[in-house]
Write a structure and sequence with these properties.
Strand 3, helix 1 (about 45-55) and strand 4 (about 60) form a beta-alpha-beta unit. By secondary structure, this protein is of the alpha/beta class. It has one domain (about 5-285): Alpha/Beta hydrolase fold, catalytic domain (Rossmann fold). An eight-stranded mixed β-sheet has the order 1-2-4-3-5-6-9-10, with helices on both faces. A two-stranded antiparallel sheet has the order 7-8. The chain is globular, with a radius of gyration of 18 Å. Helix 2 packs across helix 3 and helix 5 (about 155-165) crosses helix 6 (about 175-185). About 35% of the residues lie in helices and about 20% in strands.
Length: about 290
């Protein structure tokens, strides 16, 4: 089974841009699963999960704008959740999905929360992978430090070592899995160097965020979470420095009252290339609502 890559045109306050997305499974299948990646990752992250679910679902995996094969925004200040949610609404219209299940890792989970909080939204089941309304400030600083760094590597092995270093919290992976995780977010340029496959302008909103803005943003995320009514699964890496256990437990008591599952020996965030992790999500998505 292989995926086809397609494109859809979206709009931001500064103009038009394209969103690339991978599509797995039968294009006529009305059962649609949307998988959305984390801050600096790409649609290819979900290849293993999509292959495991493409017989039950039509699986749609976008590159969020600014990443991978999608276009870049003319104004980096618009790399924000409202823009991402807007783009996903356009994508859903393109793929003609009336209802969807949603799997979102980190940023992709926040986008899913934003969509699922809206009146008349199409989300039937929601999986939040290691993310919630309260995000650890120290972890955000850690992530923000490398997002905008322009790095170039003369060999792939050097680039691979870098990706492994900044991704240690993903937990143990085989050499083959690390190779793919690196190749998915790197590209070799005509000069032979390997570089990040995203717009370094993603760092601009981080730099512009004041502590007061961060507090206000978290309050808005809790309002969004409390408005969600669909069945929700919250996955937390046991060692996550982004989603605290206290926040995860609070999410089981309010809003959609998510079911919490923790994955041992993993931080932020589980990659779902492992069969046991995939089975966890598959069981939730394919189970019937009580």
């Amino acid at each position: 089974m292989r995926a086809d890559r397609h494109y859809v045109q979206c709009i931001s306050p500064s103009g038009l841009h394209q969103i690339a997305y991978k599509e797995w499974g039968n294009a006529d299948n009305p059962r649609v699963l949307i998988c959305v990646h984390g801050l600096t990752r790409v649609a290819d992250d979900f290849d293993a999960l999509a292959m495991a679910l493409c017989h039950e679902y039509r699986v749609i995996c976008p590159d969020v704008v600014g990443r991978g094969f999608s276009g870049r925004l003319r104004n980096p200040a618009h790399y924000q959740l409202p823009q991402y949610v807007s783009d996903m609404v356009t994508l859903l219209a393109r793929v003609n999905a009336e209802t969807v299940d949603w799997f979102g890792t980190s940023m992709g989970g926040l986008i899913g929360m934003g969509l699922a909080s809206l009146a008349d939204n199409p989300v039937r089941k929601l999986v939040l992978n290691d993310v919630g309304p309260n995000l650890n400030p120290e972890a955000l600083v850690r992530i923000g430090e490398y997002v905008g760094q322009e790095v170039r590597f003369s060999t792939f092995n050097e680039a691979l070592a870098y990706i492994k270093t900044i991704s240690l919290s993903f937990g143990a992976h085989t050499d083959q899995q690390w190779d793919k995780l690196a190749r998915d977010v790197l590209r070799q340029y005509p000069d032979g160097t390997w570089r990040k496959h995203y717009d370094l302008g993603l760092a601009e909103p981080f730099k512009a965020t004041t502590p007061e803005m961060a507090v206000a943003g978290q309050a808005m995320l809790w309002v969004a979470y409390d408005a969600i009514s669909c069945e929700t699964l919250l996955i937390r890496g046991e060692r996550s420095d982004l989603l605290s256990r206290e926040t995860a437990l609070e999410m089981t008591q309010r809003g959609p009252k998510a079911t919490l599952k923790e994955i041992p020996d993993v931080g932020h965030a589980p990659t779902f290339v492992d069969d046991a992790q995939i089975a966890l999500v598959k069981d939730f998505l394919l189970s019937k609502n009580e």
